[in-house]
Amino acid sequence: MCDELGPKEEYMQQFVEEAGGTSLCNVKNTEVGCNDKQKTFIEKWAAKPADELKKQLDRLNGMLDKDGESMKPEALSWAKQRLGFFKQLQKHTEL
User: Fold this and answer.
1) What DSSP string describes 30-41?
2) Confidence (pTM)
């Protein structure tokens, strides 16, 4: 592993998540790669119907398209992560 990111694997994960505005967290298995905030969010939304997921997906897409550049980096990263979770949940509900 790269020494520039430190000796621990979590540094690499943190870098990937911050740089990519994404998460290694998967809605099907929240025990690996998910922090408590992400787990809570996924648990809350996993039981929601597909139409609510679609509404939130559309809302976040609009918010990122319109205000994405003016958002603080932490808020932008969390919005992108939520968008990814909604996409995963939507695929999961379609199955």
Assistant:
1) TTSS--HHHHHH
2) 0.75
**Would you state the pLDDT for residue 56?**
94
**Measuring CA to CA, which residue among 86, 82, 87, 80 is closest to residue 64?**
80
Helix axes 50-67, 73-94, angle to 10 degrees: 150
List 26's β-bridge partners, or say none.
Answer: 29
Rounded Cα distance between 14 and 3, Å, is 14
- The whole-angstrom separation of Cα 51 and Cα 56 is 9
Q: Which residues pair with 95 in a beta bridge?
A: none
Q: What letter represents residue 39's amino acid?
A: K
What is the phi/psi pair of residue 46, to 5°?
-65, -30
**Nearest-angstrom CA–CA distance, 80 and 75:** 9
Residues 6+ apart with CB under 8 A from 11: 5
Average pLDDT over residues 47-51: 92
